[in-house]
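Support case: user asked for a sample of complex input and structure output to validate their parser. Sending the pair below.
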Amino acid sequence: MIKVENLSFTYPKSKESVLKNLNFEIGEGEIFGFLGPSGAGKSTTQKILYKILGDYSGDISINNKPLKNWGNEYYEKIGVGFELPNHYLKLSAKENLQLFASFYSEKNLLDFDELFETFGLENDADKRVEEYSKGMKMRLNFIRAIMHNPDILFFDEPTSGLDPVNAQKIKQHITKLKTQGKTIFVTTHDMNTADELCDRVSFISDGEIRVTEKPSILKNTHGKHAVKVELQNGQTAEFPIKDLGSNPKFLEFIASNEILRINTLEATLEEVFIKVTGAKLSE
Amino acid sequence: MKTLVNAAINDFRLVFRDNSLKIFLILPIFILPVVRYGFPYVTEIYSFLREYISILLMFAVMQGAVTFGFIYSMVLVDEKDTNVAKVYGVLPISKFWFVIFRLIPPFLFASLATFLLLLFQTFYDLPLISNLAFSALTGFVAPLMIIFIAIVAENKIEAMTWQKLFSIPLYLPILAFFVPTVVSFFLAIFPTFWVYQGFDSLINGGNFWIYILIGFAHSLLLLAWLVKKFNKLHFM
């Protein structure tokens, strides 16, 4: 479990705070999304959480123990999936994993062959990483993050550079990790990924959390409580969801022609983000 | 312990898989026959060079340390350039010892290259213990160079430029033999000053052990400071 209270951070030699009074909590078996444009403070927050950056103010506790009190054993408990592929290009995928795995307790390590097979790399495990495509390297990044079976996982843009099939595979695996009780922290500016994966999201902009909520609630709150009906003849109309079944105008409208589609008018996460923060996610 | 040894072995594997680095490994071996047979031959033809044979040997000695310094600095710089260093930042290891262990092989290789070169040269009969101590001191030049370059260079191209610039403080202290003593003391800030002075006292007589001990202390303090700085930057 991760608990962050009043977290602020200023880089040395900088006058302005990068993070301002952040508060959030991530439970076991939860996927928490940190959404924001580049430079919003997502990576800084992650670096603090995996103890690369110190000298922050506020309190962070991991499994009820202050982060500052954790030693190197902390890294047995966490797995980090970096945004960009980072492997030794002259080594094979297997050699890369074997090297990094040698730093962890052997008892926690997962079966490499099984992992390669799960992510479709079984036939390329002995190839040098310099021969890999970006998507393959990203899958290897993912395998490296989970190979020591950590309790807490940090994923930075987990589906970046992946084709739709492999992106789906990664998302399914993250969901599987959630069902195993892992605490998962995802930073992304891809609202579709966040919407699909996260139980709760925080919108961060200019170092401040603007809102923390379930994606469904955000979309619902900031969207219209209405449905849009489109008929085969091209006619469209909107009707309030309340008492929709007994709304005579709605019933008359759908009886007038074949229905092409009916959509709820909830907002997308991106629309909510823009509304709440005034910034754009793709910045 | 085993894992740290693994990391050190992996560095060697990386060097061997990089054709441009692998070729440099033979350079210290190539220097041995040059010193053994080339130097006596040249000094026989150009007798005025006999006066400078100790300087020539100092240059030759430094080549081994510089070569291994260069090779291993490339491994660390490449690691930074490809962001692999970030992975080490989140591993359950002591960053300090991790770096120290990775510096041990280049230190040993550089020391061995120096030791063999002094053993192969035919101009001076050097006591074994003194040769070992002097070789170890010279060996420190490699880790110092590695860490310095890994701190300042962001990629291999920058590393090569810095390697050239590193040659200045590396060879500058040789000037101490040609300038007044007062001026030469300013050169004592460079670790190689103690290497050159140590070598001079080894062949011409003098306070060899004092130079060696000060040299060790100087190199170790400088190395500890650089490693601390390196650890703050490398794993970000």
